[in-house]
Amino acid sequence: MSDLIRESAQRSHVIIHEEIARDGAQGKTLLNGDQRVQIARRQSALFGTAAMHHLVFNAGFPSAGKEEFRATRQVAEEVEECYIGAAGRAIREDIDLLLSAVDGAKFPRIFIAVPASDRMAQTMMHCDGAQAARSAVDMVRYAKDKRPELCVDVALADACRSDPGRVADTAVALTGAGMSMAIVCDTVGSLYPSESRAYYRDLVGSAGSEVGFVAHMHNDLGFGLVNTLEALSAGVYGLTSSWLSLGERAGMAATEQLLFILGFQPEAFAERFGVRAPLWRQEINLKMLPSLARYVSDVSGRPLGATDPIVGTGVNSISTGTPFTNPELFQPFNPQTVLGIPPQVHLTALASKRVVAAVASELGFSLSDDEISSSLNWVKAEAFSRGSGVLGKEDFQAYLHEQGFGRGTEQNDLKERKVLFA
What we know:
Elements: H1 4-10, E1 15-18, H2 33-45, H3 51-54, E2 55-60, H4 66-78, E3 83-89, H5 92-101, E4 108-115, H6 118-125, H7 129-146, E5 151-157, H8 164-177, E6 182-186, H9 193-207, E7 213-217, H10 224-233, E8 238-241, H11 255-261, H12 269-273, H13 289-300, E9 317-318, H14 321-325, H15 335-339, E10 344-345, H16 353-362, H17 369-386, H18 393-403
Parallel strand pairs: 1-2, 1-8, 2-3, 3-4, 4-5, 5-6, 6-7, 7-8, 9-10
């Protein structure tokens, strides 16, 4: 069976290694088998019928325990839309377990972790980097001898603190042994953006076109997403991300942000990233991002914040006067058109008369000028009294009832109520 993921990268199409189930667990979260299956299927749907060309869903780390093995195995058995990966150490026992975990998957894949730097090799394998590389070659051959058709990736731990020429040589040797793609790990998230682009340019230039790379960039310094995009600009089309940025320590590039950036305004890709469009076999359905992010938030316990980009609770919301007069002027894109997120008006201490009138209208009240002024004073005083950033609309509705404001104008049909922005 051909490797559709490697073929996509060779055609300059983006591939995504999704890490919510594996690296995400190191973000102090836990997804059971059913939840992993749900996320994998829904994420596959973003790509339409082309998920097997773009998505590797890394389902887990089977050697972590029998429950983890079962959860990984469940994803491999039940998800047919995309590649299902399982991760382990570069030892025979782990490889045997990985082969068992993905056995029967429609699009199976495994990856083994190998230290790329001398310091990491000493810690992980009690040897130097050169010995670790030779061992990795042997383990790739071992896996391919057992399952010749299986796609075997190798994660090069701490690669970005090792010389790119040396990493390139290791990747060439691994490719010769049967490796599909080398996952280049900025294990501690230490690279700055300009360093990331230079590193990947040197790496790609040294390795040649036969080697496929995947960038795995952590977010310890806040550069996970931008460093991933720098890798793309340097010619690396394999990218790693995790929903809501969940991952080890400070996480990694957020899937919802990465997919939005690489799915929005494809006509600008050449100017923004130095790559040609299309990056995808078919357009990503960006309107599916918010609902899937909410699901991940619910099952992982990581709440969505008001300031989270793309999928946060504050997207397409207004609470102050100036943006209220011309919302599009204060947005980089139309969230309702692009993401399907409808506009919302929130009551805060920064509310204006327009905001108060709009929320009252949404609730079915048509207020006089004096009633609007009184209501605005109440909103500001109540917000500070409670120490609350946002006042509930049910509380505002109760206040309007108590004051008898808008009497005779309250609408009965809630389905008719709309938020007014002008």
